[in-house]
């Protein structure tokens, strides 16, 4: 054994002892179980048991307040009604959305900061990595990313009985006559997992809920707040909906994922390229 090895051993022994004692300390303090994937500042809020479904998870801390504010500002400028109309899901709510490429194009026009469009990409990718890790999947790709807001209209009342988003599954077409849920090609089947990153609270109503099959009553509910993420598999095992937004504005990043790379969201690449090209002129200038 040469001098260098002895020196390394000397260094390693105390380090190992320190690691072991740190682990023992962590084990002694009550800590939330870690399910497959650990991310700094992301804490488990409800597990499959709490949410009453095997492939469901709820965490907090996936986005900071600053990041939520960036996304809310981006939605304020860029989220627009669907071509189907502004009251797409409810007669009492305005539904507006923004896609990643649209966000990048707004940055190109100077309507929103480049950082905000970039943040929509990085936050949705962070959520993807969490879902991939938590559920222990071999691979997972975003297939669609939508920054959406639901705003109570002036005629919304507290005794409304409609939903902001009716009970549905994300990858099959629920048939109300027999409660079957056939996978209808080509729109639905490539979705394997879904997640919603909540961006705010301070509105009335708007809880996300998982629903029982057949009677559609709530099995478990999720109160939106900045940085909270609910993730779940996209099949009929996870029927879900959104309660009416009675007043105010509720914004989220809604995400659908696929394990089949053929269905990756192509526009993410385009958005990233566009954002990179927007950064370039500055670099070129500084070189002159
Ligand atoms: C509420 O007002 C909007 C227009 O702001 C209208 O489109 C919608 O039909 C109204 N809803 C009801 C139930 O009257
Ligand atoms: C709905 O169905 C579930 C499961 O079948 C049952 O446990 C629950 O009590 C039902 N809820 C209502 C409101 O009927």
UniProtKB/TrEMBL annotation:
Keyword entries, A-Z: Dioxygenase, Endoplasmic reticulum, Glycoprotein, Iron, Metal-binding, Oxidoreductase, Repeat, Signal, Vitamin C
Fe2OG dioxygenase domain location: 145-259
Signal peptide: 1-22
Protein name: procollagen-proline 3-dioxygenase
Enzyme nomenclature, EC number: 1.14.11.7
Record-annotated membrane-spanning stretches: none
UniProt cofactor(s): L-ascorbate; Fe cation
Gene Ontology CC annotations of this record: endoplasmic reticulum
Pfam families given in the database record: 2OG-FeII_Oxy_3
InterPro entries in the record: Oxoglu/Fe-dep_dioxygenase_dom, P3H, Pro_4_hyd_alph, Pro_4_hyd_alph_FE2OG_OXY
PANTHER family tied to this protein: LEPRECAN 1 (PTHR14049), PROCOLLAGEN-PROLINE 3-DIOXYGENASE (PTHR14049:SF9)
One GO-annotated biological process of the protein: collagen metabolic process
Gene from which this protein is expressed: P3H2
A GO molecular-function annotation: procollagen-proline 3-dioxygenase activity
UniProt similarity note: Belongs to the leprecan family.
Keyword Nuclease in record: no
């Amino acid at each position: 054994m040469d001098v260098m090895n002895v020196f390394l051993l000397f260094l390693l022994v105390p380090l190992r002892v320190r690691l072991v004692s740190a682990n023992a300390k962590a084990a002694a303090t009550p800590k939330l179980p870690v399910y497959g994937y650990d991310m700094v500042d992301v804490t488990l809020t409800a597990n499959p048991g709490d949410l009453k479904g095997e492939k469901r998870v709820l965490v907090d801390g996936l986005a900071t307040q600053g990041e939520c504010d960036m996304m809310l500002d981006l939605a304020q400028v860029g989220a627009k009604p669907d071509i189907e109309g502004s009251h797409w899901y409810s007669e009492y709510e305005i539904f507006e959305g923004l896609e990643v490429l649209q966000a990048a194009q707004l940055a190109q026009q100077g309507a929103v900061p480049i950082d905000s469009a970039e943040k929509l990409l990085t936050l949705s990718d962070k959520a993807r990595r969490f879902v991939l890790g938590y559920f222990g999947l071999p691979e997972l790709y975003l297939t669609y990313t939508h920054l959406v807001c639901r705003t109570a209209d002036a005629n919304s009342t507290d005794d409304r009985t409609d939903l902001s988003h009716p009970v549905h599954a994300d990858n099959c077409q629920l048939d109300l006559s027999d409660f079957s849920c056939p996978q209808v090609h080509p729109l639905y089947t490539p979705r394997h997992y879904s997640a919603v990153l909540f961006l705010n609270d301070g509105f009335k109503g708007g809880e996300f809920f998982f629903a029982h099959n057949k009677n559609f009553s709530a099995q478990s509910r999720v109160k939106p707040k900045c940085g909270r993420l609910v993730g779940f598999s996209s099949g009929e095992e996870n029927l879900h909906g959104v309660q009416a937004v009675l007043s105010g504005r509720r914004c989220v990043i809604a995400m659908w994922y696929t394990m089949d790379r053929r269905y990756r969201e192509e526009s993410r690449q385009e958005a990233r390229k566009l954002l990179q090209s927007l950064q370039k002129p500055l670099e070129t200038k500084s070189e002159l």
